[in-house]
Amino acid sequence: MAEKEKKEKIPRQPMPEQDPKKRSKNFDEVPYGYTPELAQKEASRCLQCKKPKCIEGCPVGVKIPEFINLISEGDFIAAAKKLKEDNSLPAVCGRVCPQESQCESFCVLGKKDEPVAVGRLERFAADYERAQGKVDLPELPPPTGKKVAVVGSGPAGLTLAGDLIKFGHQVTVFEALHKPGGVLVYGIPEFRLPKAIVDAEVDYLKRLGVEIKYDYVIGKILTVDELFEMGYHAVFLGVGAGLPVFMNIPGENLCGIYSANEYLTRSNLMKAYLFPQYDTPLARGKNVAVIGGGNVAMDSARTALRLGADNVHIVYRRSKTELPARAEEAHHAEQEGVQFRFLTAPVRYIGNADGWVTGMECIEMDLGEPDASGRRRPVPKEGSNFTLDVDLVVVAIGTGANPIITGTVPNLELNKWGYIVADPETGKTSREGVYAGGDIVTGSATVILAMGAGRNSSKAIHEYLMKKG
Prior knowledge:
The chain is of the alpha/beta class. It has 17 helices and 16 strands. The protein is globular and about 70 Å long.
């Protein structure tokens, strides 16, 4: 009991980070990460519960108390290896997963104080292993002779590929773009997830034997049926939900109005943020409005600041209480100078004679009764219209299912939104040998949930291939 009380008195260790005024002008990663001393001190807070609930909150089932105990003992390399038993992308998850609503929300310490910083410790262990050059490969089983095609190299596809290669199967990933990572590289900015981190995680999978083919738009270059004809025994569809969604309000076709997909892809994957080294065209507004309140909206707003905007507004139709973005991301945005306009919704865009957006008419909202999501429904406040001066708008209100691949797979069951219907436990679809997981099944969700889907499907595909003989 005395030991428990002692641990409860150690405060949660903050992670050193860049000064807000400095970082809002660069694309360097915001947090610096734990030092070994800070990591050990934070790890020492863990109570090492006999029945750890935190594991239940992790979609990929990381052995959390075990890897944290290894950090507390100073065996950082062993901690990283323990993580990789269940998580193929620990350096990524340590940065972008919402631990506060998953593993950390189950932490016993969190009942009286702040929970153990699981995500920060995960990041530390993975970074330490990489920095020391101690990323060793596990021993692989003999080849099974089975071939699996993975469509999409996002978090679901990469997790599945890493698992299947360890089962002894031959794995080929088909990626539509010229770099691997999916949303990890085109959607999440450098200051939140450096591309070098994603590259290192992918390189580990390549060293395990995963083959990645780039510039392959499955559904155009090849169909799923053709993949089977080429000798693949199973196909996993992890193509994400990349179809832009707009509000369909007047003036939406004016120049200077981007979907968040295009805006972030141009900046992140096409490296517009490195201008003039990369001369990728991207409008740089001085007065920017970002529509939406999720992590993508925060990423867009913080990117606009770094690209030279004087004023960046988050325009969100509900209140701060309902904001779907991670608290840390909203906090960082606020620190950097992003202005939040809650209970506000755009109704039309205003343009000049050259066809460029110059303003956005908005209306104030009140919150009514809860809707199907459980959040209070926003109701327009009559007569409250006003105009916001803007020269760039980024629409970040969600994404839809891109029909390029789903429209070319006969007898593949889709739901009314165009997402693939798949068993949540296995990823099995209506087509034999075809599995799916991640955002193309659930709609826009988190990196770790997509990874969890990849983990579930890898087990199911392995069983399917072994039974098939």
